[in-house]
Amino acid sequence: MSEKLVIFDTTLRDGEQAPGFSMNVDEKVRLALQMEKLGVDVIEAGFPISSVGDFEAVKKVAESVKEIGVAGLCRANKKDIEDGWEALQSAPRARIHTFIATSDIHMKHKLKKDKEEVLTIAEDSVKFARNLCEDVEFSAEDATRTDLDFLCRVVETVINAGAKTVNIPDTVGYTAPIEFEQIISTIMNKVPNVDKANISVHCHNDLGLAVANSLAAIKAGARQVECTINGIGERAGNASLEEVVMSLYVRKDLFDYVNCTVNTSELYRASRLLTSITGVEVQPNKAIVGKNAFAHEAGIHQDGVLKERTTYEIMTPESVGFPSNKLVLGKHSGRHAFVQRLQDLGFELQSYDLEKAFAKFKELADKKKEVYDEDLETIIENQISEAKEFYSLEYLNIVSGNTSIPTSTVQIVDEKGNITTDASTGDGPVDASFKAIERITGIPGRLKKYRINAVTAGKDAQGEVVVSVDFEKSGNEITGRGYSTDVVEASAKAYLNALNRYLLRKNSKIKKTSEGI
Ligand SMILES: CC(=O)SCCNC(=O)CCNC(=O)[C@H](O)C(C)(C)COP(=O)(O)OP(=O)(O)OC[C@H]1O[C@@H](n2cnc3c(N)ncnc32)[C@H](O)[C@@H]1OP(=O)(O)O
Ligand SMILES: CC(C)C(=O)C(=O)O
User: Fold this and answer.
1) Do 89 and 127 form a contact (C-beta atoms < 8 A)?
2) Whole domain around residue 12: which residue ranges?
3) Please, are residues 419 and 394 in contact by the beta-carbon 8 Å criterion?
4) To test ligand 2's pocket by mutation, which of 11, 12, 13, 14 has the most ligand atoms within 8 angstroms of CB?
5) Tell me: the pLDDT tens digits for 495-512?
6) Residue 130's domain is classified under what CATH number?
């Protein structure tokens, strides 16, 4: 029979303690509702005494969620606990979480108290909290640097005082799996009343061991894990919720004695919501939720995944709600992935010369970080039709300034070598240039997207302009790129590049399995 493992999410409390992660009341409520959807058992909504805003946030979260537990952190004193209880009262399941440090370093330098004084404060605080609230958690801050005999006395005392959960935090991320497993085992074996409470752990990531330590503690008998979405939290953060949960899920064979009821398919959404609220992205290689967590660029891996996904994937992207696995085409890719992507884009293998196209692709991949679908389309379309450019830019002159109407004079050469010159005014020099091109070619286009990137550094940076244009109201957005140290010239080139690609497709004999230009 497996035992329930309580997932205690502290994204809204320890998570927001880190610089850059503060959340306001509405943001906390939004995230709390997502955490409820995710199916965590308890959320720690804040530290009510810390500010009026945080009191309000804990109160609003308590009022907003339907069934999960809501905790508020309180120091071990009456004022904090009363305040916390006031904020929590309307929660469907309120939990007062009170704490005090038990390590010699903290007691001597920070609290300026001895062991007996701290023990009494811990006991009194838990008793006081239990008079207000059924569900009380106690944390022995800096437990992993606490004298183990004293830690066992503290745990026994607070359980006798009524704590239902006793948390053993690795406050400064100091312990290691082999040691933490022993600490928890000792508590499980030596504390006589330990069966009357749930032992919890709360691991920080200063040595990058927070998840490993949490898993070691589960092995030793801990049945609550405190963690945060994206692993955010004080300093290097807390154990990442998604990593703990997916470790238990993927390695059910190792953890079949615990039952975790988190709905894993909501993990990615929770991570994205946190990112959009705080504006802090996770690193691309972040386990479970990073942009590259399910991406493969290496040719041998891509080939393996195409033949059998499990060769290089230990979980499906769907299992964590990740959009899909992704074969990124770059300089490490091989022919299997290249052909697969072209097939997905609708190009039949027999319609192009694979070796030539692949060589062109590798050449391009050496210059660019990632090769996009439009680049592949251009490679194939150019190869098959061997078409020359329909239009190319010969000359461009703009008049612009804060007192003149922007005007652009453009000269274009068509595929037969005819040169045409025309001019137009516009809302700006770029708009005027596009209008002049439209006058010359007679092909109307609606600009849908426009982006400038600097592709080299310094004052003489090469600018890359990327445009998406819908020509002749076809309903298709055609992408074009242009490069120049002059952004207006790069824009005109990008527009013409899109136009040439449009005409190429329109006139192309390329057989595409999916229709549409
Ligand atoms: C490991 C952790 O993550 S613990 C949680 C850490 N989170 C935070 O601190 C965020 C919220 N904190 C705050 O807003 C403020 O620190 C407050 C409102 C709690 C307190 O502010 P202040 O009253 O100005 O005190 P300040 O923060 O400067 O110092 C902390 C005081 O609490 C005492 N204290 C620290 N922990 C505890 C505890 N668990 N129980 C009782 N007292 C404690 C300290 O000894 C110090 O007391 P002193 O003033 O007698 O020296
Ligand atoms: C208050 C406790 C749980 C804490 O955040 C820590 O020790 O890191």
Assistant:
1) no
2) 3-278
3) yes
4) 14
5) 998 998 888 777 754 444
6) 3.20.20.70
